[in-house]
């Protein structure tokens, strides 16, 4: 696939006892399809991938693929700080029918660029499924440099990169140097519009969880050079873009979805429910976006 558009980094609904709420996940998938979302990333950072176990990880991929039933592309988060674990998850995602995989840089063990090059090359060579690189150094402590992305783009089934650095200088450099068929996606909602107006092909978004229609419309306007309309939508959403990170993602966005009635109160330790002092801030951001 050529990933593009407003792709939601979907949350993993849970009950208050931290068990998975599959019925709520089905509801979210229908919600995104009805609202125009262009793709779903399941079990990414926003989907609490660090704390779901291997069996749950695979269950969430299988459930999403089966329930989506080709109505919307499904991208499975299969990254790990163990190369072999990432290969195993990616193989399983392919077997389960995912359209592509999103592979975060190995966290905590902090490989250098040579290690990253070998890590992603090995996964791509061992699993014949389209793969998207994911660079989010603020969370992983590991930064995939643009030169390394350029080398990896030569591998046929590495089809894109999610750049969540929020650094537009780096983003412009990626857009300038990478081949046109390679999908360069923003992973930072606050700078996503600028990224798209300068040549990026879309966004993997947290904001899209609560404002999917507006995020899709902003993308569509950016692609069709309706810049004023795209800027207007972005201004409407900007408080969400920033305040959905007032605490560690996905704490704020899961709280917002709960008050929208789309999921129940459930988040897995060590994450906990949104601090009460931040409730009003999120509610105000939602009102500015005409949500709730």
UniProtKB/TrEMBL annotation:
Tell me the GO molecular function terms.
4-hydroxy-tetrahydrodipicolinate synthase activity
Task: Write down the top EC class of this protein.
Answer: lyase
EC number(s): the record gives 4.3.3.7
Protease: present as a keyword of the record? no
Q: Give the reactions, separated by semicolons, that this protein catalyses.
A: L-aspartate 4-semialdehyde + pyruvate = (2S,4S)-4-hydroxy-2,3,4,5-tetrahydrodipicolinate + H2O + H(+)
What keywords sit in the KW lines? Amino-acid biosynthesis, Cytoplasm, Diaminopimelate biosynthesis, Lyase, Lysine biosynthesis, Schiff base
Indicate the residues that form the catalytic site. 134 (proton donor/acceptor), 162 (schiff-base intermediate with substrate)
Its localization reads: Cytoplasm
GO terms, biological process:
diaminopimelate biosynthetic process; lysine biosynthetic process via diaminopimelate
Where does the entry annotate site (Part of a proton relay during catalysis)? 45, 108
Q: Where does pyruvate bind?
A: 46, 204
Indicate where this protein is primarily found.
cytoplasm
Cellular component terms per the entry's GO annotation: cytosol
Q: In which pathway does it act?
A: Amino-acid biosynthesis; L-lysine biosynthesis via DAP pathway; (S)-tetrahydrodipicolinate from L-aspartate: step 3/4
Q: Which PANTHER family match?
A: 4-HYDROXY-2-OXOGLUTARATE ALDOLASE, MITOCHONDRIAL, DIHYDRODIPICOLINATE SYNTHASE
| Subunit composition and interactions | Homotetramer; dimer of dimers.
Q: Which HAMAP family match?
A: DapA (MF_00418)
Family statement drawn from the similarity comment of this UniProt entry? Belongs to the DapA family.
Function, in words: Catalyzes the condensation of (S)-aspartate-beta-semialdehyde [(S)-ASA] and pyruvate to 4-hydroxy-tetrahydrodipicolinate (HTPA).
Q: What is this protein called?
A: 4-hydroxy-tetrahydrodipicolinate synthase
Question: What organism, scientifically named, is this protein from?
Answer: Candidatus Methylopumilus planktonicus
Upper lineage is: Bacteria, Pseudomonadati, Pseudomonadota, Betaproteobacteria, Nitrosomonadales
Which gene underlies this protein? dapA
